[in-house]
Amino acid sequence: MAILETIGLAKRFGGIVAAADVTLAIDKGARHALIGPNGAGKTTVINLLSGVLKPTAGRILLEGRDITALDPHQRVRLGMARTFQINALFLDLTPLEAIALAVSERLGFGIDCWRLVGRKGAVADEAAEIVERFHLGDVMHERTAILPYGKQRLLEIALAFACRPRVLLLDEPAAGVPEAERHELLATIAALPADVTVLLIEHDMDLVFSFADRISVLVNGALFVDGAPDAVARDPRVKAVYLGEELDA
Amino acid sequence: MTPLAADVAQRLKRRARWSGFEIAFWIVAFASIWLLPQKHLILTETAILALFALSLDLILGYAGIISLGQAAFFGTAGYFAGLAAKYGLINEPVLALLCSGLVAAALGFVTSFLVLRGSDLTRLMVTLGVSLMLGELANRYSNITGGADGLQGVTVAPILGLFQFDMFGHTGYVYCLIVLFVCFLIARRLVYSPFGLSLRAIKGNALRCGAVGIPVNARLVAIYTLAAGFAGMAGALLTQTTAFCSLDVLSLERSADLLLVLIIGGTGYLYGGLIGAVIYKFMQDWIATLTPQYWQFWIGLLLVVIVLIGRDRMAAWHEAARAALARLFTRAIGWRRGPALGGAGPDRS
Question: What is the pTM of this model?
Answer without folding.
Answer: 0.89
